[in-house]
Amino acid sequence: MITRRAVIRNLVVTVGGGSLLSACGGRVSLETLAPGAPPRFYGDREMAVLSRVSDLLLPRTETPGALDVGVPGILDGLMAEWASEETRVEHRATLAALDTELGARLLGDFLDADSASAEAALSAVDAEAFAGDGVEGYRGLKGLVAQAYFSTEGGAVEELGWVGVPGRWDPCAQRT
Amino acid sequence: MRRKAQQEYDAIVVGSGAAGGMCAYVLACQGVRVLMLEAGRDYDPVTETPMFQLPKDAPMRGAGTPEKPFGFYDATVDGGWQVPGEPYASAEGVNFMWWRARMLGGRTNHWGRISLRMGEYDYKPRSRDGLGFDWPMSYDDVAPYYDRTEMLIGVYGSNEGLENTPDSSPGVLQPPPAPRAEELLTQKVCGEQLDIPVIPAHLAIMTQRQDADRLSRELWPNNPLAQRVTADSMRSRAACFYATPCGRGCSIKANFQSPTVLLPPALATGNLDIVTDAMVREVTVDAQGRATGVHYIDKTTRLDEHVSARVVILAASACESARIMLNSKSAAHPDGIGNGSGLVGKYVMDTVGAFVGGQIPALENMPPHNADGASAMHLYMPWWLYQEQAAGRLDFARGYHIEFGGGRKMPGFGFMGGLAPFTEGAYGRRFKEECRRYYGSFIGFSGRGEMIPNEDCYCEIDPDGVDQWGIPTLRFHWEWSDHELNQCRHMQHTFRDIIEAMGGNVTSTVHDDGADAIAAPGQIIHEVGGAIMGDDPRRSVLNQFCQSWEVDNLFVTDGACFVSNADKNPTLSIMAIAWRASDYIVEQLAQRSIG
Question: A-contacting residues of B 95-124, CB under 8 Å?
């Protein structure tokens, strides 16, 4: 069993610090941004950058991609309703820094770059971030996109093969 | 549930969880008229449990918040470490976390279902190492009640005959579920390389339906009423179908919760009334100082109510029961009822907890399969170094067990949290492949260790605090001893060794200083003590039957009576001890020697 403490620790690890745990309290009415509805948290540029990053990270393959399952809308809802002010400020700063960094690497607008170039630039930013440098908050952002994706039916069931109600536990291996 | 007190009651039970539920069941089955007062709201697991909902169906993807620390779907529908309008304080430098489950059934709705018996060493710890206190009874005195409790609630596990890890009587335990991949690997590595036993865990989850006819007869010979209500209740329970998280509750009643297993048969006797939203403020007494009933706040009207009975049983949770006693001041009991020894609130203990996580390459790329199992662990490691400890080769006096798990669990918020460092530079199709590769390859080890009671860990009434009901609140004091901190260091190193022996990578920090690894006091939610039992009225609050030394019709049957807090998570022992105390109360009521 993953214990209570492990769950909390996992949360902290995932979001790259404790800040998301200091979520605003009380209101619980979030859901994914409906198609065509305006974002509640992100500005147009932020939404476009986040969508492009999500699509590059988890594109449609034989299984749904991040945009198919509405990852940007999920994160928009989380930021609008769940995140603390501190988290919001950090998250915006991360998106802006990432946009700037990618633009510098691509010598142009990230949103205009072709997929191969954009992915190469992102992978370089990614490697740098995990080496401990680069865009601050990037690791947390990547984790959030992945979490939002795998928390959907498309991500969990179609992509990962998670089985919701698998029936009784009949393992083929026996304890020796 | 709001049935107003309409008749005379023999007993008032304050609280509806493990202890209160058990007392109500045992007393009602034997003809005692019981009024149960629960501070929280009514709750029905059959209709209210979100068993099948996915994270996507929840606000905020089901993530934890200060109001719902274990996520949106957690069975604690009201309560947590912070309860609005019900504050508590900690002394400077102390961060005590006090969990309150304000709902029918209390913490039994959310608990881990880990049901380990305390053993013969655990009842006489001082006799073994000179620390803490001995219990006034022995394991043999409580063993029949462990059997009965396990038969009633349904516990899976096995009898392994290991030191201080008691076996149950034949026919008591249900068969344990077979281990999953990460459990088999851990068992193999621990056995072959580290000499750590990995055996079936004991959990209050049913792997098969109960034999209602046999069990009800064995539990209640010569008591047709008790047999009937117990058998009916057992027949309404299904076996686990191995799919949904137990912590959300169980609408098919496969796991143990007081509102599905203890309260329905108790109500069916006709001898139990339950009033919810009833926040008990104090125990009232007569001129001689004997308990007459309780005052409670009706939370729906905010009015102060009073009910009377021959016996008052506090089962409100360790610190809440201590709080009620300390707040029950009278001419006869100027420092709180039953507190002539000055020990009410003293010797509060929690469980020592520490964690290390890892990623195991041997578990990568597992094919899709049902890894949910019975939701919680199928195997665990009981404490295995009794002899080393007795020989003085360890720098801490008491043991811990290890809880562990991983596998392809339902992806929820926080999911893949440990993944990011393994996917450096990965984007697109490769990132998806990496996620599939690593899904199910993470494992976590948690130590659950014994804390030795000490003078510095206690609660008292905060002179500056009242809650929204006007009831004086608690202030907590805490200091770990080197025994707990050194034990935590040992956990950290052991868990690292296990992960490395499995060929894995440690993914969390391994602390060499136990103080950096230890969970905050109260965080493991195993707090016990505060009204310890004993055999000397000057040095304990209760006798071995949870009866106040000073007030013979006042009982405290929850974790407050604990004298030590062995590494065997307390709930099962709370229930066994509460059953034993309830049998004693029935006897005393019949003899008219109390009430």
Answer: 112, 114
